[in-house]
Amino acid sequence: MNQNYIQPDNWSIIEEGFDPESVKSSESLFSIGNGAMGQRANFEENYTGATFQGSYIAGVYYPDKTRVGWWKNGYPEYFAKVLNAPNWIGIKVTINDEVLDLNACKKVEEFRRELNMKEGWYERTFTTTLQNDIQIEVASKRFLSLDIDEVGAIAYSIKPINNNATIKYLPYLDAGIENEDTNWEEKFWETIQIKAAGNQAFIVAKTLKTDFHACTFMQTELKLDGESLHLPTNVSEKSTEIAFHYSQEVNPNETFTIYKYGGYTVCSNHNKNELIAAAKKALQNATSLGFDTLLQNQKEAWAKIWEMADITIEGDVKAQQGIRFNIFQLNQTYLGKDSRLNIGPKGFTGEKYGGSTYWDTEAYCIPFYMTTKDQQVARNLLQYRYNHLEKAIENAEKLGFNNGAALYPMVTMNGEECHNEWEITFEEIHRNGAIAFAIFNYTRYTGDYSYIPEMGLEVMIGIARFWHQRATFSTAKDKYVILGVTGPNEYENNVNNNWYTNYIAQWCIKFAQENIQKVKQEYASDYERIMQKVRLSDQEISSWMEVAENMYFPRSEEYGVYLQQDGFLDKDLVSVADLDQKQRPINQKWSWDRILRSPYIKQADTLQGFYFFEDHFTTQELEKHFDFYEPFTVHESSLSPCVHSIQAAKLDKMDMAYTFYLRTSRLDLDDYNKEVEEGLHITSMAGTWMSIVEGFGGMRIKNDTLSFEPRIPWQWKGYSFKVNFRNHILKINVTHDGTTFELEKGNDLVILVDGIKVAVTPNNLVTVS
Amino acid sequence: MNQNYIQPDNWSIIEEGFDPESVKSSESLFSIGNGAMGQRANFEENYTGATFQGSYIAGVYYPDKTRVGWWKNGYPEYFAKVLNAPNWIGIKVTINDEVLDLNACKKVEEFRRELNMKEGWYERTFTTTLQNDIQIEVASKRFLSLDIDEVGAIAYSIKPINNNATIKYLPYLDAGIENEDTNWEEKFWETIQIKAAGNQAFIVAKTLKTDFHACTFMQTELKLDGESLHLPTNVSEKSTEIAFHYSQEVNPNETFTIYKYGGYTVCSNHNKNELIAAAKKALQNATSLGFDTLLQNQKEAWAKIWEMADITIEGDVKAQQGIRFNIFQLNQTYLGKDSRLNIGPKGFTGEKYGGSTYWDTEAYCIPFYMTTKDQQVARNLLQYRYNHLEKAIENAEKLGFNNGAALYPMVTMNGEECHNEWEITFEEIHRNGAIAFAIFNYTRYTGDYSYIPEMGLEVMIGIARFWHQRATFSTAKDKYVILGVTGPNEYENNVNNNWYTNYIAQWCIKFAQENIQKVKQEYASDYERIMQKVRLSDQEISSWMEVAENMYFPRSEEYGVYLQQDGFLDKDLVSVADLDQKQRPINQKWSWDRILRSPYIKQADTLQGFYFFEDHFTTQELEKHFDFYEPFTVHESSLSPCVHSIQAAKLDKMDMAYTFYLRTSRLDLDDYNKEVEEGLHITSMAGTWMSIVEGFGGMRIKNDTLSFEPRIPWQWKGYSFKVNFRNHILKINVTHDGTTFELEKGNDLVILVDGIKVAVTPNNLVTVS
């Protein structure tokens, strides 16, 4: 790990003491979001030190021109950039006309941040002495409302300590913001209208090219020692900014507070010309409740989320803090309310990666949402891809495929491919497999087969057609091969016969074929409708099956393992343990060509296949592959340690499983990858959740039955989690003495525990030891 | 071929008739250059139609910021861009105050361009009727002086036909030019000083970042019907431009002529603060001779070049025109006078590719210059790489190599890597092999071994060290493999065991080892000096040899051929002939991933190895490989058809050899690759020369003896060429009746003709039939 300043706490993320070096890191870690918007933990007052400003609106993006030396056919036309949105949290503060700026104060003491995950708020307090020797106490608390998700609220207070002082608050809106990450240093926003009315202000701005219109708004209230204060609202306006000016003489130990309500109304939810009206309504809803009631509602809303999603860990505060941080951030990013949205790799905490949707959603996030929310949430995520099927077919056509073959994008906002990374992303066609797998995974877990005849089958057919066309018959091997791909391990590029890709391609075809038969037999009218649309003949299905049944898989008989790709054994097979530690992380120390020819694996690749298809292999086979590949895995992708943690637990390598668990759960808190400043790794947080539920808990579905093989790290006293399985809510509590199962909702349920059938009945706590 | 408007002519490139669609193509084809500068055939007068303006100064470049999605270690820091230089040819013309602009005239008749290759000038004539109904005849002739290579001259005349007219000439200098090709739309030049003095004007400008200072200058003279005319010189100046204004009332059939002398003086040849003085001196030298004498000198200088370099072809005007166009353009680009310069892929005819030096120099250009010039020219080209050895070692260090391993850049201006094409160029390490091969080729041909102890051995040691470190021992194969490369065929990327690369790597090590022994024995003091510097032990050499002697070569026993790379036979081996012609060229019709997994070969790859090392293989082996690879070769690189032409001739496939010869020699004239607008393919023109001398002429060196196996296409009556072999100038004349050898310079020479020894003596024409 590379940092260690976050205070261990079961429910909060806490920083104590002011360190300018940690500001950008903490801005990421203390980020808040409510599914509709989010923001980095930037200071409200001015700050001239190093900072990374960020405020984001879900679904609002900019199609940045891509950067490439020489364009080639098939490259995406744009890179969808997560947009830094207009700022509404800003409050410029002056104390006797000196600007409050923590980078310029004489002293900063008792600086403390807390992100209270249980209740969903962020607080910052400090005492500071300005250059003018005025000493003040500052407290700021803010949250983004889960209930009224267009609104956030801030309570910002200053108390002079050693002298009276003229305190000026200049709350402002600023639409003149820029992205840190821009390919061509362009501006993304254009201001359309600025308006003030009483203690309310509005800026309507639109994104260039994508033409998203958003109204950024604010309303202010003032109090002095808890009593409402009515000062005149002086307004100043610039071309992209509007500010209110309030000035108050404050005595020592009096507290001058400004409440600022703000947020966004966006054209995806309102008419473009009604954004200010919508903003007024949102403000009316929020301010009529007031800060305290809004906050109380916030606590209750989060309590509801935690009720289902919480995982407790006893006897290991850092592990407990880690898992809650992961669950909290996932829920801050995506709540499943809006089926047009998805889960971006950095959520609302940074700009990196762009796009909102990667294969991460299907491979990592769906299990989390499927298990901790109503199954409709996971269904929405599946439907998101169904809605993009036409675009996936167009994308495949651009690359030379036909007949309805679908290639889903690696990175997308609206179904179009929009990545920015030719050398890696371009050939990662394996993503298509995860999208089909998620359909399988969803129906397996929820038992809701209806998704397949309604929507899923069309997706599966498009994907099967793609794999069929993408495979090449090798006369030399007398098998079908898949040439020129990049597997999940992005430290390889343009390899032949990546085992994971070939395996999932074969599986996709078989899965499609099986379901075509099933739908034909059981959902005749859906079958008719679909066949009308896709024009699929038995002959075509046979040609798919010819490919699937004759797929080539690289294998080493010597090692008894499938090979990650053709030629893997030609590499210089020095294990990571034998690599000079000064060479790590290799993505920062080594040239790209050296990484490519090395055996080092960025993230689970062959093992990702063993994770998805564990029941296709024996535990001995899993162990063989784990023991072969783990020593070459550098885990320089956030998506890697969780899979290894799950498999290590399965293989009873509990110390390893625990180490990987810490690495995945505290990846950002302890900054393992030296990049937390850029934002959090949101999607891999679902992997953390899996590493407990599927790893230590050993949760699987076996023949329609929920099964567990509970294990517990010796470092813990116990842990518990809940799952929503086919409308049963089951709480699992694991200790060294045994495991208890409690059915909180639903009818009698038969589960498997370590292979033994156990009946769980409402109100009847079952203990297995 | 894609165009057919160039008139066949033995000595000139001729266009007749005005077609706005062909302007950009002709601007490339009629380009002129003198080794020190060059320019596209842009019109002197204004032109509002589609045009690609270009004027270039040898060795002046701009380090453009590279464009890449996400940066990776080892990527070049900049892309050296060929710079469009300030324009000195411009003459704005008005006729009765109407601007002369061929895009706006009522009629353009008798439009004709001629590039006279024999004499080295470019002429354009036309008759036009303006919107004001004035009809005029215009004639413009210009050339860039070979003798005074900082100067060019233009004679521009207008004769009114149907009426008298006020003709205004506004000759100007313009430093406000931009590149068409810029990664970030930046300006590259900054104007420092503008100065007029009498009929002379000067603009000193410097390139941003690289700080090249150049003075662009002009001087004018006027004549009316051949009589000097002294009009007042009115001057107008803008921030980056200066113009003279001359106005004259001209009667019908009177000719009003402006002579414009212009060019560049550059800080690489003069002190920065003496550029204007140097320009004045250059102008003085030129104008004291006057246009006609300068032109006479130009004819004589070109006659001298042709005397040695010409290749005649009888009975096939298009073939004759093609080869002369290639020889002419090569000599316009590089004359071997300045050892700091090299041969850019587009010479002075366009901006594409950037950089001045590719492996093209060693693989294609050196044989041409070595054979048609004094051997010092080829030695200069070799020394260019010796001068860059330290940079090549630094470049290798950036990629993780050590101990003096040298990796030469794929694209360079000053020894630093500066390419712009990650997906292809990054792994083309085979370039290192061509650089060593050129040393071998030079010593083999010239007999000048002294280059090796003086400079070449150090280069060879650096290269051998690179290959030794770059190879990986594969336990699985019990051989050394070279992983993750791109061979000469740029339609593959990141392949393992590219046969060409592995073969040349092995050869480089053996060649270095042999020469270390030879220098040790025969050049003891050089050996001592070198060993002092490179610290090379016998043990290290042994470890090199271990790699060389155990190198792995992919091979198919079934086909009896070496495989281009591991896994080549897994591809869908449909020959180019069976490919739908609508899919061609695949680099314009197919997506990049589809190209990568196809079997199609952009340019000779395995066959490039057979070209370099022909004497390592039997003719039967060559034929087997030619027959295997040629059917998959799409020749979408300009460097491809020449090699296939040479090998087809060797294999007596004369029709094929002839077709490839036309394709290489008329690549630009007939625009085979649909891109001549962007500039000419200069370096491949040396390949055209090789396809006659080495292809049809069958010239080789066998055991220090010059040998020929002459063949003649049935389409030709005869052809002749000259070679400078070890200070013998030998003229070879091939007809269907036999071949004559004439020694124009040098002592008695024994050569091999079709394997039979033939003695050639001065003044004794030897005929072999």
Task: Describe what you observe in this structure.
Two copies of one chain form a homodimer. In chain A, strand 14 and strand 15 (200-207) form a beta hairpin. The mean pLDDT of chain A is 96. Helix content of chain A is 32%, strand content 25%. Among the domains of chain A are: 31-309, Distorted Sandwich (Beta-galactosidase, Chain A, domain 5), CATH 2.70.98; 697-769, Maltose phosphorylase, domain 3. Chain A is of the alpha+beta class and 769 residues long. Chain A contains 19 helices and 33 strands. In chain A, helix 8 (431-446) packs across helix 10. Chains A and B meet through strand 22, helix 13 and helix 14 of A and strand 22, helix 13 and helix 14 of B.
Instruction: Outline the low-pLDDT stretches of chain A.
Output: none
Note the main sheet of chain A: 10 strands, antiparallel
Roughly what fraction of the amino acids of chain A lie in strands?
A: 25-35%
Mean pLDDT metric of chain A:
96
- Helix fraction of chain A, binned, reads 25-40%
CATH topology of the domain at 31-309 in chain A: Beta-galactosidase, Chain A, domain 5
Oligomeric category: homodimer
> Largest interface, and how many residues on either side?
A-B, 54 and 54 residues
Provide a short characterization of the protein structure.
Two copies of one chain form a homodimer. The first copy, chain A, has 769 residues and is α+β, with helices and mostly antiparallel strands.
Strand and helix layout:
Two copies of one chain form a homodimer.
Chain A (H helix, E strand, L loop, with lengths): L11 E5 L6 H7 L2 E2 L3 E3 L15 E3 L3 E5 L12 E5 L8 E5 L2 E2 L7 E10 L4 E9 L5 E10 L6 E10 L4 E10 L14 E9 L2 E8 L5 E12 L2 E3 L4 E4 L3 E10 L5 E11 L8 H35 L2 E3 L2 H17 L26 H13 L2 H13 L1 H10 L23 H4 L5 H16 L4 H20 L1 E3 L4 E3 L17 H24 L1 H11 L3 H12 L5 E2 L4 E2 L23 H4 L2 H6 L8 H7 L6 H11 L11 H10 L3 H12 L16 H15 L3 E3 L2 E4 L9 E8 L2 E8 L2 E8 L3 E5 L2 E5 L5 E3 L1
Parallel strand pairs in A: 27-31
Antiparallel strand pairs in A: 1-9, 2-3, 3-4, 5-6, 7-8, 7-13, 9-10, 10-11, 11-12, 12-20, 13-19, 14-15, 15-16, 16-17, 16-20, 18-19, 21-28, 22-23, 24-25, 26-27, 28-29, 29-30, 30-33, 31-32
